[in-house]
Amino acid sequence: MISLKDTMEEAAAKLGEVQFKGLMLKEARIKNGAGSSPEDVLGWDYMFRTNEGVCYKYYAAQPPLLGMTQPVPVPCPLGIQTFDSYEIDFKKAIEILNSMNCGDVFVAMTLSWALTPECTEPYWHIRTTLGSDIAIGANSGKPNCNKL
Question: Which of 9, 96, 115, 136 is most buried per CB count within 10 Å?
Fold first, then answer.
């Protein structure tokens, strides 16, 4: 598994003298727009923030696929904070999803940490074809299912 630190360093190397503070957003690209297993995740759109407050976004393929786009500066989103580690990877989050009664086919998956006092960890947000939004703590693994 590729670590978040390795991902930040690879992107920073493409930019030269940039130091990333942490991840802001990680968004899955899903094969054919819907998936039921980790193999259906083709890659990720990453958004990192630098120590200077500039955000960069790029795509990186999920191994065994190869490839990464050049990071480009983008406006930093409001309402989320940076983080540099998490415990529950996307494979475990999908495993937790499949153990719940909220749907097993996902159409969207993101990882972010809301900038609110109630959020004490980053969360995986997963939307299913049944219209459920699932939030899974990226450190605790605690799930919550909400019907849209």
Answer: 136
Averaged pLDDT, groups of 10, the chain, 148 residues long: 74 82 96 96 96 94 91 96 94 94 92 93 95 94 81
What predicted TM-score, i.e. pTM, was given to this entire model?
Answer: 0.92
Residues 6+ apart with CB under 8 A from 5: 84
Structural domain count, the chain: 1
CB-neighbour burial class of residue 116 (10 A; exposed 0-12, middle 13-18, buried 19+)? exposed
Cβ–Cβ contacts within 10 Å for residue 67, how many? 8
For residue 55, give its domain range. Answer: 4-147
